[in-house]
Amino acid sequence: MKRCLEKCLTGKALDMFTEEILSYTRIDWDKIEDRYNYVYATEHAIPNWIFDKIKEQL
Predict the structure, then answer these.
(1) What does the mean pLDDT of the chain come to?
(2) What letter would DSSP give residue 55?
(3) Spatial separation of the C-alpha atoms in residues 19 and 47, rounded to whole Å
(4) E strands along the chain, which residues?
(5) What is the rounded average pLDDT of the residues 38-56?
(6) Would you state the pLDDT for residue 55?
(7) 57 three-state secondary structure
(8) Of all helices (H) and strands (E), which one includes residue 16?
């Protein structure tokens, strides 16, 4: 959600995220991004026919 905001996307869900989550200042965003900001190349639930088309963008 934070990445969507950084890309200037908008919508009700992002408004709610901004109000309810971003206002909570104790969240360590860098730690979260370090842990979850990648997709496993072999252990994922993305169908192979889709993964083959998008893996270069990840």
Answers:
(1) 86
(2) G
(3) 34
(4) none
(5) 82
(6) 82
(7) helix
(8) helix 12-17
Structure tokens at 31: 């730690």
Tokens of 8: 């200037």
Q: Is 5 exposed, middle or buried (0-12, 13-18, 19+ CB in 10 A)?
A: middle
- On whether the CB atoms of residues 27 and 21 are closer than 8 A, the answer is yes
% residues pLDDT > 70 (the chain): 93
Dig out the tokens for 22 from the structure.
Answer: 């971003």
Q: Residue holding tokens 């842990």? A: 35
- How distant, in Å, are the alpha carbons of 3, 5, 39 from that of 54? 18, 22, 11
Residues 6+ apart with CB under 8 A from 17: 1, 2, 5
Residue pair 2/18 in contact (Cβ under 8 Å)? The answer is: no
**29-39 pLDDT tens trace:** 889 888 887 67
